[in-house]
Amino acid sequence: MKIAIGSDHAGFEYKEAIKNHLTSKGYEVLDKGTFSKESTDYPIYAKAVAEEVSSGNVDKGIVICGTGIGVSITANKVPGVRAALCTNEFMARLARQHNDANVIAVGARVIGLEHAIAIIETFLNTSFEGGRHERRVHLIEEIDNLKC
Ligand code: RB5
User: Separation of 8 CA from ligand 1 center, angstroms?
Assistant: First the structure.
């Protein structure tokens, strides 16, 4: 599975740790920055990750900032992206099973690193259930089409 990851300065250390963890597990990880702890603007990196997902270049995206809120708001502006801000494994599992989320957002100032990794693993290892949820995801996609 190919994954794009990006963060601002607040999420930089988590991004590095999560990237190393996923690489060691055999995932192909595309790092869209930021590349230091210097203060920067989260929309740059959330947009870059979301565009990789939207274009189909990667299977899933991970975006990180202090709260996870700014990156999730940004990623959800990109057509075809369904970004879910998750603070526990239950949310990560349901984001995949019910919402077919293709980007996960986490807040480095909200949850511990080991918890973030467990949440991300749950997200990456859970499939969309389809069925009645398919109809609801299509209704979201119709909103994307209005933007064209
Ligand atoms: C940066 O200070 C902080 O605002 C950012 O990481 C994020 O939490 C925004 O939503």
Answer: 8
